[in-house]
Amino acid sequence: MKRVFAMLDGLGRSPADDKKDASEKFCRAILGYMPNFILFSSFEDVFPNTIPISELPSNKWIADLQQMSDIDIAVIAGADARAKKGHKTALNIHLNEDFKRFWAQDDSELSIDWDNQQLYFWIEENGQFFEPELRSQGRRWHLAFYIRVSARAREDVRNIILIDEPGLYLHANAQTDILKNLEESGKSAPVVFSTHSPYLLEADKLERVRLVQKLDDAGTVIHNKIHQVADKETLTPILTAIGLSVSRGIASVERKNNVIVEGPSDYYYLNAFKVILNKQDINFVFGGSSGNMQKVGTILQGWGCSVVYLYDSDQAYNDATKHVKKDWITIVPECLAKLPVDGAIEDMFTKQEFAERIASCDPAAIGGKNSDFMKKKDKVLKAKGFLEAVRKDPGAKHIGSDTKALADKLFADLYGRFPPEGSY
Questions:
Q1: d(CA 122, CA 320)
Q2: Which domains does the chain have, with CATH numbers?
Q3: Which residues pair with 60 in a beta bridge?
Q4: What angle do CA 101, 152, 55 make, to 5 degrees?
Q5: Rounded distance, CA 243 to CA 417, Å?
Q6: With contact defined as beta carbons under 8 Å apart, do 307 and 332 qualify?
């Protein structure tokens, strides 16, 4: 009988059917181990002004709010007036405590209200209530972004969140709020986003960055290491982010011992020398190129700071000495300094030392000056890496005696150009 039943069970089936069933079973098993990939390519749908009470159970915005707040549809649609009042107060307090962590641009709140027919969303600003659609496109985008991304990160599902160009409609300061939300969401679910904005890149966390490069003969390539790419277009957002981070040093200046430097590479190497030589009473400020240094320095001088301008030993220094005599009324020649080497900051190192400890190459590959070799390389990232290595292990021998002698000479020259204590 077993043989007969086995034969009957197989009637009408072919090896192809069995193969198809096995394939489907295998695919279902594989999908069971895979996370959900959620792509936010745009936020064109505007956050609603109102939602009918009857539609709350099926509304996508309410579903998202349930993931990130204590909103209770049963209470809202119920008949208990006291429960409704208590729930409304608690809901708005909790929601805004969370919301304000990721929006610091103004003193505004998201307010939720309802009656027997409709649930209402308001944005409260200075005691005035506005429907979401009356706010700017960037404001509405941020509200949708905050709720959607936060909800996907907090739900009990294995999500990987993909976002294309977040914050396009927001100004620079608001983009930093976006970054806070991405950081928080990333604690619960992996977040991957594409951007051209330097304000969404953190200069001290470049290990997170992957470069996307479009090649004529190979399509789009994603590089795991930043130094694998040399083209300026791809690196520009990262280099701009680095420049922004070092420029923030202007906000922490003291009245004495401020040195304006030409580029971010100077900033990083000189701060590394500062740690190595234990010269903590000197402050290096990124000047935004040799042509802008006097503008930054003039501002600091207006604040009553002592300022020295440090140039590469090249034509920019020669031009500065001419401008001091003719154009720069507030800057005296004694405030101008140049590196004690023929060239740029990279030339403070011996060729052997620079090749082994910074450029990671054969010394013979450098050829001429270290600075010339680095012109087509990711020199800013190399300089930043050197500073990080020094800060990580300040007691290690990061430079040889020849480089240390040059660094000592440079710092002695800088100190000698500052006015005496008490003369500011």
A1: 57
A2: 35-200 (3.40.50), 247-417 (no CATH)
A3: none
A4: 100
A5: 26
A6: no
Do β-strands 258-261 and 283-286 pair in parallel, antiparallel, or remain unpaired? parallel
Give mean pLDDT, residues 22-51: 79
Q: Which residues contact 247 (CB under 8 A, 6 or more apart)?
A: 286, 288
Distance of CA 38 to the CA centre of its chain: 21
Is the pTM value of this prediction over 0.90? no
- 51: exposed, middle or buried (Cβ count in 10 Å: 0-12, 13-18, 19+): middle
Q: DSSP letters along 198-216, please?
A: GGGS-GGGGGG--EEEEET
- Residue closest to 141 by CA, chosen among 112, 116, 171: 171
E-state strands within 224-317: 258-261, 283-286, 307-311
Three-state DSSP at 191 gives strand
Alpha helices by DSSP H, listed for 327-378, are 351-354, 363-366, 370-374
The alpha carbon dihedral of 130, 133, 137, 143 has a sign of positive
Can you give the pLDDT at residue 235? 64
Residue 422: the pLDDT is 47
In this structure, what DSSP letter does residue 304 have?
T
What SS3 class is residue 36? strand
Q: Which two tokens stand for residue 191?
A: 């977040």
DSSP 46: P
What CA–CA distance (Å, rounded) separates 53 from 73? 9
Distance CA 316, CA 329 (A): 18
Q: How many CB atoms lie within 10 A of CB 192?
A: 15
108 pairs with which residues across the strands?
125
Residue 109: C-alpha distances to residues 72, 98, 102, 103, 112 (Å): 20, 11, 12, 9, 10
**Pair of tokens at residue 72:** 């209770």
Mean pLDDT lowest for which of 87-91, 326-330, 416-420? 326-330
